[in-house]
Specification:
The structure is a homodimer of 355-residue chains. The first copy, chain A, has 355 residues and is an alpha/beta fold. Chain A contains 16 helices and seven strands.
Chain lengths: 355, 355
């Protein structure tokens, strides 16, 4: 039972803000809102390992919807992991409990490793994600819109080449600086895989998409444009959008805000290192902005969180085109009451900016 | 035998560039140049633990001078650790082999912990660093200038409050957001300790000083100014400089470049995430600039390193006021030949920018 993305949810504040249409108040959701800070998430996670959660539509759907019910956010993001795409391209993905996040034991090392990668058919190799999207749309009953996401080609490449998270990014920096042609071949192939994946998510019912470029900020500005932003742009060009808004989040890339705003996305998500008022001055007539409270502020008591929320709202100023979010994912040791305080503060304090 | 900082070294390119005076070519040194990428450093390190190296003037001096002899840099930076200052303030500092960097097993948790901290007399509690400075000045025989350094108050506070490196900075963010008065009391006290320490280093013979704000970038722009830059400014005001130039390195703080340039430093050190040409346009008439090649470029072959060097030199453009450096510390697995290639490329390619 496919559901057209054009069906309007009861609460469509998020979608209207993406299009910079008038809203009654600023919509709010949080990156990683379906995550470890919620005891209800940890209860599901206690039963199965991380990848099983990603691969079981019922579980992925259950944890995706938890923050809608428990925290009151204005958008739902499908629970998954960015590394399912490289896995579908043919890379072995493992998670060893207690040994950090997922990793690739056989990282990309040579041109032949790159050439061996497949561009997967999402309907086959990533069907479980699409099933989770369909199920979640159904279970949401149009209460709030559903966001699908993917890692940026550059960010996926860093994991595929390093094998795991890295501090020095040695292997991937060696690749771009010493063998740029191979780097471009890899990034071009990943772009095709990501765009097919995002197109399929939209077809399955995602009402917005977000591209996460977690590691774009590890590159100097020129290399960021050459190896990261270029492939985000290419990916977005290839996605069959059907009017679905696209959000792009390039973490620690404030140096290239204007170029990011020109990549084809409708919304630019800002980390906490940028003044959202200045960002609006620079690019607010081209794109909506998402963000950007310091995730660390959720360690403070609720009244302080409210003051932080008001500051972000004041910096953005009056009018639409703002989706409230954190500057990065919610941290796993934040109290759920503090997440609720954030959402409530946005919902109460933002009305006066939309008169 | 104290040596006046005013004695001119044979190679004073670095000092002239700090003052934006004419130079024949761009001077170059590398953050963490006295470090693990050098087999000669590892040979010393194999004999004693890290803190013993810091505390033994002969060893600290030996490894400080290694890159002058082996790599050909235009400045020497004294080998030490930023955490010796909190230790001198009364905090227990431990390093367990194979368990990451130094850490404080009893971190700052309460106002009484802050009140208990002492502002040390560097001539007593940090005498071993001053002895290392004096010895290194002597051993250098005025070949190149000697730089003394300290952590910024904010960066030291993060370690003192977290106890070690952190990903979420939970404790210190809770401190600034929930108990800002306590945060300011701590930062004010650290500032006094750091400025006394830097004054003593200058008296002992340091010919330039650098303040490292490694974690300023973990703060949103307003909090960066309130909790980090403000105390760098205060520290510099309190240092007895006697004409010795001061460099400030606020990593990942490009959002506040203009404010950083106004903190009282003579030189602003840039990470690789800023276009040094744009930075010069913005603040080059107020300060000299240091930086900013991506440290990851040293993984590439020498001819590619040369191209990277030329790009940074071209971006800065003609004239003085540039000290070539990496955007962050040299990585421990870089080949010494690649470090030499960097230095050689700067020394050869930069002459044409100073005609």
């Amino acid at each position: 039972m496919p559901i057209a993305p054009s069906v309007t949810p009861h609460n469509d504040l998020f979608l209207r803000a993406c299009r910079r249409e008038p809203v009654e108040r600023t919509p709010v959701w949080m990156m990683r809102q379906a995550g470890r800070y919620l005891p209800e998430y940890r209860a599901v996670r206690a039963k199965v390992d991380f990848l099983t959660m990603c691969r079981t539509p019922e579980l992925a759907s259950e944890v995706s919807i938890q923050p809608v019910d428990l925290i009151g956010v204005d958008a739902c993001i499908i629970f998954s992991d960015i590394l399912v795409v490289p896995e579908a391209m043919g890379m072995k993905l493992v998670v060893e409990e207690g040994k950090g996040g997922p990793r690739f034991p056989d990282p990309i090392r040579s041109r032949s490793d790159i050439d061996r990668l497949a561009v997967p058919d999402p309907q086959k190799e990533l069907r479980y994600v699409l099933d989770a999207v369909r199920l979640t749309r159904r279970e949401l009953r149009e209460r709030v819109p559903l966001i699908g996401f993917a890692g940026s080609p550059w960010t996926l490449a860093t994991y595929m080449v390093e094998g795991a998270g890295s501090k020095s990014f040695r292997a991937v920096k060696e690749l771009i600086y010493a063998r740029p042609k191979d780097a471009h071949a890899l990034l071009e192939k990943i772009s095709r895989a990501v765009s097919a994946y995002l197109s399929a998510k939209i077809e399955a019912g995602a009402q917005a998409i977000q591209i996460f470029d977690t590691w774009g900020g590890m590159l100097p500005p020129e290399e960021f444009k050459e190896f990261s932003l270029r492939y985000i742009t290419l990916t977005l060009q290839q996605v069959r959008r059907n009017g679905v808004p696209a959000i792009v989040f390039c973490k620690d890339c404030g140096h290239s805000l204007e170029e990011i705003a020109g990549c084809g996305a409708d919304v630019v998500s800002l980390d906490a290192g940028i003044d959202i008022g200045k960002a609006r001055e620079m690019v607010g007539s081209f794109v909506a902005l998402q963000g950007n409270l310091d995730p660390g502020m959720l360690y403070a008591p609720p009244e302080r969180i409210r003051a932080g929320v008001v500051r972000v709202l004041e910096k953005f100023g009056n009018g639409s085109g703002h989706i409230f979010n954190l500057g990065h994912g919610i941290l796993p040791d934040v109290l759920p009451d503090h997440a609720r305080a954030l959402v409530q503060a946005v919902q109460e304090e933002s009305r006066r900016f939309h008169r």
